[in-house]
What does this fold into?
Amino acid sequence: MNDLRTVKKRFILSKGFYVYKGLNKKTKELVYIGTTVQIPKDRFRWHKSNGKDLFFSVINICDSSDEMLDIEFELIKKYKPKLNKITERKQNLNIALTKSEIDNRIGNKEWCQKCLKRRVKSPYIFCYNCK
Ligand SMILES: [Zn+2]
It folds into this structure.
């Protein structure tokens, strides 16, 4: 299946907009579709430490978060991987924040000081979207 083909590792060097798949290690069945703006191997390690020990690989490198989330949603609708919890709608990075969340993040160096929606690492002040 072309839309699930693994991207060669040499094209995955940095943070970006990635769609990835997770296969059951024994059966090779597709059980998860995910997205990340991190370096994918960091995300895969995080999954593993949270109990999701699958055979992960990147299947799409996108130009924007919108494209990434669209592709993720199309693949989830098409394949219905059993470990995906949100299947009826696109994931949304722009979910409205409550006032207390916003107040907490203002001036907090862990959060992008423009959108207050994404975490940043020092010495950055703005996230990848706002930079
Ligand atoms: Zn931002």
About this structure: The longest strand covers residues 55-62. The longest helix spans residues 65-79.
